Every structure is written in structure tokens, then in C-alpha cells.
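quick one
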Amino acid sequence: MGFNVAIDGPAGAGKSTIAKLVAKEKGYIYVDTGAMYRAIALYLIRKGVGTEDNEGFEKYCSEANVSIEYDNGTQIVLLNGENVNGLIRTQEVGNMASASSTNGKVRAQLLELQRKLARENDVVMDGRDIGTNILPNAECKIYLTASSRVRAERRYLEFKEKGTDCDLDTIEKEIIERDERDMNREIAPLKQAEDAVFLDTSDMTIEEVKDKIIEIIDNCQSK
Ligand code: DC
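structure w/ 2'-deoxycytidine-5'-monophosphate:
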């Protein structure tokens, strides 16, 4: 059994940026579970399934075989053997991932892959239900959040850097809708685990958040 760090929180809270840095510093593997949901979402989009089409999720999700590889510490998500890392970071795929991850069959499909990675490695795993559902016995749990405006601003900058045209108010509106769906779905909704440390990063720099999380992990390890 590896040493497991679970980081949950809403979209744009900085989970993946921070988890990557923390994993590197601690020599752990970084597992981005959102990317797995995004890979299934990409498959569903390719099949022409809409975000409201629960029957379509049921019908096609089992055809989307998701697996993970590591290249120099970077997680590569394979969808039926195809590296889809460069295709899954769009608002369209994010919205589809949020919609289709409400479906029990989609969630069940990824559960064992996530648990296996955590059993076999020291991991920093981020997502929505890691501390509450996937790894309830994780040694260390963190709930990372920030105001919706700050999260939208971070996403806006990411898109701008990539040269993608976007609008801050629209991004914030979509983030609020995504929070609403992720927190209120029936199966494994996003919520803080009782034993998770709560961290609001609205007024913190990346470096400050990383240092704080390393401190929290070191504390968990010395217990
Ligand atoms: O973290 P992200 O934005 O890449 O995640 C995309 C969507 O996937 C998110 O809106 C909800 C879903 N998701 C989930 O339901 N459970 C997880 N552990 C990770 C992501």
C-alpha cells in the first residue's frame, strides 16, 4: 500500500498545478482523475452524445477504455490506446466530463483504476471524491478551494496563454454551474471529507499553497 494524499476541490481551485509540484517534491506519482473523466467525455463527444443524454452515457461509456502511463513523471491518459492529453483541456470537454460523471456506470468504470494506482504507488491524487469515496483511508486529505471569481481568473489566464479566445464572465458562469452539478449529484458528490484539511487559496500564491501542503503532508507523516 502506498502513502496516499487526496486533494479534492472545485474546478479551477489549483488542484492539478499544486498536486504536480507537491508530487515532484515528495517523489510521489501525480494522479489526475479529472483527466480520466475528460477522456471518457471526449469519447462521448466524438460519438455525438449531448450533455443531457444520460442514455448515451450508459450506452457508450464502456467502449471508452481509459488507461494511464507516465512519461518522466507526466501523466499520459490513453483513450483506447490513443494519447489524448492534448485534446481534453477544453471547456467543452470539461463541461461534458462534469455532466457524464454524474452517471454511476461512468464512475464505476474509473474507480478500480484509481484505487489500483493508489495501492501500488505513493500518490498525490486529485479529483472531487478522492478523500470521501475513492481513498477513504488516505493518510492525508486536503480540500482546496478559492472564490469563483479567482478560479475563473486563473482559467482565463490559462486559456489566454494558450491563445484561446475567452470571456471572464462566461468562464465564471460555467464554473458556478459546474460546482453546482459536481456538488449536488447523487453519486459521490464533491464535498469536504470530515478528516480533510480545508485550504482557501484565493489570496495565496502557488508557492505559498505548495509549501502549506508539504507542511500538511509532513504533519500527516509524523503522526
Ligand atoms: O478536475 P477537472 O476539471 O479536470 O474534472 C472534470 C470533471 O470531471 C469535473 O467537473 C467532475 C468530474 N470529476 C469527478 O466527478 N470526479 C473526480 N474525481 C474528478 C473529476
